[in-house]
Amino acid sequence: MKIRLDRTVCDGFGVCAKHAPSYFSLDDWGYASLVGDGTVLDEDRDAVMRALLDCPVHAITEMGDRRPRQSAQPCTTASSEDPAENVKTESNEAQWGFTR
Description:
4 strands; alpha+beta
């Protein structure tokens, strides 16, 4: 996993440094800086993802393609159900939860 910090978006809340202090440092005014090149070790992934998700201004982004943690198996079960029956329309909106 690799992350990027956009310092022009950062508003200095400091949440990132609270969750992942080894990847984010704060300057004298509380604005974040990325420590290192943004490469995140697997054992630190959860803490960095918490910092990414909790950033109130979304200044932290994950770079590159997401790789699944475990091998994904393609769906091999053939469904005889017609997909057109599941289309969300005004006539069946009560079934899929839309309210006006």
